[in-house]
Design a protein that fits this description.
The chain is mainly α. It contains 23 helices and no strands.
Length: about 450
């Protein structure tokens, strides 16, 4: 069983102020973005011990009936080991007999959340919050469950209620901000983040994570001036507090990757360079910087290629696609789209060799993205072998996904001499796309990947 007093490094006689001070100290040392597992343990310990009733129940766990204690401890162990279903079976059994122990019900609700069964978690946390409306931890857990369910309005109301009860619980601020971000209410998310920063400044606790979210909101709303302002404030924090340098540097390194995703090249480079100056010997930051520098060159060359008149638009689209492939292994959509671009090149191999040679000479980093394919096209000696290999690929795709092709009425068209019947018809998805982490459309309350998307 977890020893919450040990996690917070406090005595069993510690008062509320001591618990809060310990919590602030540990959150500063283990910010959630950098240390998610450690932060989760810290938050759990804080929310149990800061409330008088749950603290009393935790203190008497050892005095529980033997059966209840055994099931509780084993359920916690299974949950920590990642077996949420096993934990649920154990905790459901003991909660029926010992329903008055809220610590058992809390753990059962957490297990439901880990199993992405937000419906049952909501039932438990609604009962707990109704029994103890002044328990910020219970109200906060209910808000988390509402958010997982996709009920943003209900979640926001509960986060507001919980923060009125405990404005120093950073997990409540982060959840409240995430609630509005996931609902695409960017302005409201920034407003909540600024409120949190104001409270943190007044009460003296670490607010690096709040800056992460407000800058994320700046990016989402394209407020580059606001982002620059908040980045400067973060740098000031690092300069004032030597202990914060590591957390600020880590934050900036992760931010640089997000900025790169939004194609904000200069801002991304500035963020990673600042992180590198703060922690020049950090191996992970060096690695991220190398990746960002490489990606920056590719993006800059891609912008230049878009204005290039001497290279066919086919290759601009081909390389743009390569940059934004989904990343899933054996994705048929990506595999077919890649084949389509390459097939168009092979079908017009003689006219496209000049384009590829220009690409190699002027944009070497872009050329290297598909070096093997481009090299094979430039190799005239193996032209017949290359054409035959793509004929076989064409036949394979015709077998596994014939609906993606349309036969050209003129088989004798000179554009289709190399592989008879191939036409350049892009595949268009007809069904609505549901993200793997979105709530399942069936209404189960689970994420799509754990329900109908299995």
């Amino acid at each position: 069983m977890k020893e919450y007093y040990k996690i917070l490094d406090i005595q069993k006689e510690a008062k509320k102020d001591d618990i809060k001070k310990a919590y602030f100290k540990l959150v500063r040392k283990y910010p959630p973005d950098r240390y998610p597992d450690e932060f989760m343990n810290i938050r759990e310990a804080y929310e149990i011990l800061i409330d008088e009733n749950t603290r009393k129940q935790f203190d008497v766990i050892d005095a529980m009936p033997v059966e209840a204690r055994l099931y509780f401890n084993e359920g916690r162990r299974q949950l920590e080991a990642g077996d949420a279903q096993r934990a649920i079976k154990l905790l459901e059994k003991v909660s029926k007999t010992y329903s008055d122990f809220s610590v058992i019900n809390i753990l059962l609700g957490d297990a439901y959340m880990a199993n992405e069964n937000s419906g049952k978690a909501i039932q438990i946390f609604e009962e707990l919050a109704a029994d103890e409306p002044n328990n910020a931890g219970f109200v906060g857990k209910l808000a988390h469950a509402y958010l997982m369910r996709g009920w943003h309005k209900k979640a926001a109301e509960r986060y507001e209620q919980a923060l009125l009860l405990d404005e120093d619980n950073i997990s409540l601020w982060l959840g409240h901000i995430e609630c509005y971000l996931s609902a695409n209410q960017i302005t409201k998310a920034k407003e909540i983040a600024l409120q949190g920063i104001e409270v943190s400044t007044r009460n003296g606790w670490d607010n690096i994570e709040l800056y992460y979210h407000i800058i994320r909101a700046d990016i989402e709303s394209h407020d580059l001036d606001g982002m620059s302002k908040h980045l400067e404030e973060m740098k000031d924090i690092a300069n004032r507090d030597e202990d914060e340098k590591g957390n600020v540097a880590w934050f900036l390194a992760n931010l640089s990757k997000q900025l790169q995703f939004y194609n904000l090249i200069e801002e991304s480079a500035a963020a990673i360079n600042t992180a590198f100056k703060l922690l020049p010997d950090d191996v992970e930051i060096k690695k991220i910087k190398a990746e960002i520098d490489k990606d920056s060159i590719i993006i800059l060359q891609m912008h230049q290629l878009e204005e290039e008149k001497a290279i066919d638009d086919l290759f601009k689209a081909m390389l743009e696609f390569e940059m934004h492939k989904c990343g899933r292994k054996n994705c048929l959509d990506c595999e077919f789209e890649q084949f389509r671009f390459e097939m168009d090149t092979v079908c017009n191999i003689n006219s496209h060799r000049k384009d590829i040679q220009n690409l190699k000479n002027k944009y070497p980093e872009l050329y290297n993205m598909k070096k093997d394919f481009f090299d094979s096209v430039l190799n005239r000696k193996n032209e017949d072998k290359l054409i035959n290999s793509y004929r076989k690929k064409f036949e394979r795709f015709m077998k596994i996904c014939p609906e993606r092709f349309e036969r050209d009425e003129s088989d004798g068209d000179e554009d289709y001499d190399e592989v008879d019947g191939y036409t350049n018809t892009p595949y268009v998805r007809t069904e609505v796309k549901v993200g793997r982490n979105d709530p399942c459309p069936c209404g189960s309350g689970k994420k799509y990947k754990k329900c109908c998307g299995v």
